[in-house]
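User: C-alpha cells for this one?
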Amino acid sequence: MEIKINTHGNPLPESHGEWVDLATAEDVELGFLDFKIISLGVSMELPKGYYAHVVPRSSTFKKWGIIQANSMGVIENDYCGDGDIWGLPALCLRKEGVKIPKGTRICQFRIVEKAAAVEFAPVETLGNRDRGGYGSTGD
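Assistant:
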C-alpha cells in the first residue's frame, strides 16, 4: 500500500512489520503532570476506506515517563492536508519531568480498514440470557 507523506523536512518513519514508528519533530520538555501535543512532523494522505491507530511504543513510558492522554489515537483519511500534522497528546507522569530530544521514536501507528456502516434496529428486548452485567466474566 502506498501512502503519500509530507515529512516537513523530517526523516521518513520507520516501518516494523504492521506497525510504523513515529518520532518527535521537536525537542520536548515536560514537567510533572504537564500536557502537550508533541509534533510528529508528518502529514499523510491515507487511502480511502482506511484510517490509522496511533499508540505509544512499548518502551515509551519506561524511557520517558509519558502516557498518551487519549489512550489511542484515531486519524481518519480525510485528515490529509499539509497542515494536518500528526501529533501525540502526551501527559508526563515522571515527578522530575522529562526532556525528550527531537528524533526520538515515541509512538507507532498501523493502517486499519474501516468497518462497514452500522445501522441500529430499536427493540424492546434483545431476547438473550443476561451474563451478569459489567465485569461478570470472572474475578
